[in-house]
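#lab-general

N.A. 3:47 PM
ok so I finally got the sequence cleaned up, no stray characters, all 409 residues accounted for. can someone with queue access submit it? mine expired

B.Y. 3:52 PM
send it over

N.A. 3:53 PM
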Amino acid sequence: MTAPFDVTPLLAPNTPAPAARYNGFPRFNFIGGHNDPKNVPVEALVEAATAVLRREGVTLATYGLESGPLGYRPLREFLSSKLKDHAAIDCSPDEILITSGSLQGLDLVNSLLLAPGDTVIVEQETYGGALTRLAKLGVKVIGVPLDAEGLRLDALEKTLADLKAKGITPKYIYTIPTVQNPTGAIMGVERRKALLALARQYGVLVFEDECYSDLVWDGDRPPSIYSMAGGEGVIFVGSFSKSIAPALRVGYIVAKWDILSRILGLKQDAGSGALEQMVLAEFCNRHFRNHVPKLNKALAAKLQVLREALAEQFGTAAEFGNPPGGIYLWIKLPDVVDTVKLAQAAAAAGVSLNPGPEWSTDKAYAKSRLRLCFANPEPETIRQGVATLAEVCRREFGVPLRSANIDRA
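B.Y. 4:20 PM
back already:
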């Protein structure tokens, strides 16, 4: 029998640890960006796929579907119209690049702008995927604290002034202003204007991530920072993962052509998945406006189930808000709780959660915090999962007290 070949000596520096084999989702799955399975518009997607393939399927014979490297033009035309109505962005289809999910958008922007040793500013609590990518690139990440409206501008101004005094200009300010991940905050209009003014004062680009902005319960959201800037000095990324389905892996970048043309030069993948783009364009032009409110109604109901379950099981031991949209709830447990250790113990009981330090630049601040995704589980599964989590937390850390639910009544 041939001895196994040892690839370990050949690995590149900083290669991640090997991934675990996939054994299915845990019983109580509160991690990731999974969405509500009952609101995936399967039948409408089937109809869209059939219609567009019969009409244009022959264009699959060419890279780019005869639309060029920016992506399927009917999808970019839909986005141009949708972004104007939804985010006040006035852009042409030729200022939109379709990507393989918003993560590819992040990678492309980082590839364009960042080199080891550069400095970027992010929200102190932010998307964990962005943090891991920045760490891998060897850049210095500075987190700015948040409040109920998102990025604190007093702290941002101090950070920018301190960096300027050291002769450092950050490459960008990364912000998730419309349904912030993980806190759920929505930045108001005046703060957006002030953020943009600060960025211009210090000569810093704004990197605006709006992957969750369709998921606002009442549909009322401020105009995007990109729109306020007229697209100057701002790069915008978005996604269909949260509004339609995450497995489709379709995102997009919006930027002025002088920037977008350089990003396009880096996208050497022969184009993102063609069939997904075709089906989405067909579906969205017919159904998007009606689909999203239905999805939001279901998600808002699940959020309240989660909040009620936490109140019942944890009482005053759990602190959390009532976000106006999104698929996540950011939760503060007593200081004695280490959510990294809690996540390990909870996993053994079939509960998956995101420990706070994975979503923050301040690991000490986030030590007792966690993020739960409420979109995927059914309401009864949410209730059972929270009860199981409370029992694990009680066993491992002594909280919540068994009388906690009485304290909160």
